[in-house]
Specification:
Layout (H helix, E strand, L loop, with lengths): L7 H4 L8 H28 L4 H11 L16 H14 L1 H21 L2 H12 L5 E4 L15 E5 L2 E12 L6 E8 L2 E8 L5 E5 L11 E11 L12 H35 L1 E2 L2 E2 L4 H29 L5 H25 L11 H11 L6 H13 L6
Parallel strand pairs: 1-4
Antiparallel strand pairs: 2-3, 3-7, 4-5, 6-7, 8-9
Length: 391
């Protein structure tokens, strides 16, 4: 006797683990993505263009920009609610979640955690509303996993700072109003709040991407950018500053990747039920059912891990190496799910008529950014052994 079909998360009764408020906030973001993003995203991906400023304002109105921060116009939600929003945004597209993640967890969090009161008052309310867009300048062309080797520098000139150097792979760079930039100084690595209209600041759009095409990715170049003393983030020194921001973003990725994986899996299930070969749906073959069952299992386990990390974060108990567990596992499994779902759709899996190849290409980037798979592996290895093996 046939039983009613279950959704992948329904099989794990995930809603039972969420509060009513968390479910409501998730559903609001899901509805926005379904109504606003999904009808347009294939075209945005194909053309490599996205109405970033328009979307930023809509997302600000939705309340997701910096939603897990307190004050300054931010919603002050729980970490779990923020994670669920990231999941639903990435079910639309990783580029959309990246827009929100870079805005809230990197640029806004950097200002919120380490900036002066003047920085916070000037930027955070407008950024929360989506009226101003931020970017985060840490990675350089030659220094990704080893940011301590960065070449970008800021030197004193009287009471001012002179910023020189460049940053690479910067989400939101060409549409940003403000950049949080990390640079070498005589006092170690420091952060600076840099308005993008500063003389000597240039953003160069990166073209010919095959991943995250519905996202603005840029190179930032600083040529004798003069900044006042007040531009420096006063409350942090060294890599603690940028790494704390990255941990915020990685937490959102642990949830977000599951959104892309869920969208792929739900698409593959629906397709396999409708696709008939040898006189019956391919969902009726044992090999297909094994694939669907295995992917559902990994998706559900990833969700349980993400929720556990979210509860720890809301109790202020989450450690960086635990964030690495979530980012490593969920990005890896989401990419594997996307690839297997692409296989189930056969030739149809490579067209933008379906979302799978788009998610798969995007996840290739998500697998690498905010700490590569290898770096998170070593973070976990160090936590287990006490031995750092990065060199």
């Amino acid at each position: 006797m046939a039983i009613a079909k279950q959704s992948p998360f329904g099989l794990f009764a995930i809603d039972h683990l969420l509060t009513e408020e968390e479910r409501m906030m998730r559903d609001v973001v899901r509805s926005y993505v379904d109504d606003r993003v999904k009808p347009e995203i294939a075209d945005w991906f194909e053309t490599g263009e996205i109405p970033a400023r328009e979307l930023a304002k809509e997302l600000g109105d939705l309340g997701v920009m910096g939603m897990h921060l307190e004050g300054y116009g931010c919603a002050g939600t729980s970490a779990v609610a923020y994670g669920l929003a990231c999941l639903e945004l990435e079910a639309g597209d990783s580029g959309l979640r990246s827009l929100v993640s870079v805005q809230g967890s990197l640029a806004m969090f950097g200002i919120w955690a380490w900036g002066s009161e003047e920085h916070k008052q000037e930027w955070l309310p407008r950024m929360a509303a989506g009226e101003a867009i931020g970017c985060f300048g840490l990675t350089e062309a030659d220094f990704g996993s080893n940011p301590s080797g960065m070449i970008t520098n800021a030197k004193r000139d009287g009471s001012d700072w002179i910023l020189n150097g460049s940053k690479m792979w910067i989400t939101n760079g060409n549409v940003a109003d403000v950049a949080v930039v990390w640079a070498q100084t005589d006092d170690g690595i420091r952060g600076f709040v840099v308005p993008t209209n500063s003389p000597g600041f240039t953003a160069n759009l990166i073209h010919k991407k095959m991943s995250l095409r519905a996202s603005v990715t840029s190179e930032l170049v600083f040529q004798n950018v003069r900044l006042p003393e007040s531009a420096m983030l006063p409350n942090v020194k060294g890599l603690k500053g940028p790494l704390s921001c990255l941990n915020e973003a990685r937490f959102g990725i642990a949830f977000g990747t599951l959104g892309a994986a869920r969208d792929c899996l739900e698409t593959a299930i629906a397709y396999s039920v409708d696709r008939v070969q040898f006189d019956k749906p391919i969902a009726g073959y044992q090999l297909t059912q094994k694939k669907l069952a295995d992917m559902t299992l990994e998706l559900g386990k990833g969700m349980l891990l993400a929720l556990h990390l979210g509860r720890l974060k809301d109790e202020h108990l989450l450690k960086p190496e635990q964030v690495s567990l979530g980012k490593l596992n969920n990005a890896r499994e989401a990419l594997a799910i996307a690839r297997e779902c692409r296989n189930i759709l056969g030739g149809n899996g490579i067209t933008l008529e379906y979302p799978i190849i788009r998610h798969m290409n995007n996840l290739e980037s998500v697998y690498t950014y905010e700490g590569t798979n290898e770096m998170h592996t070593l973070v976990i290895g160090e936590a287990l052994t006490g031995i750092a093996a990065y060199r």
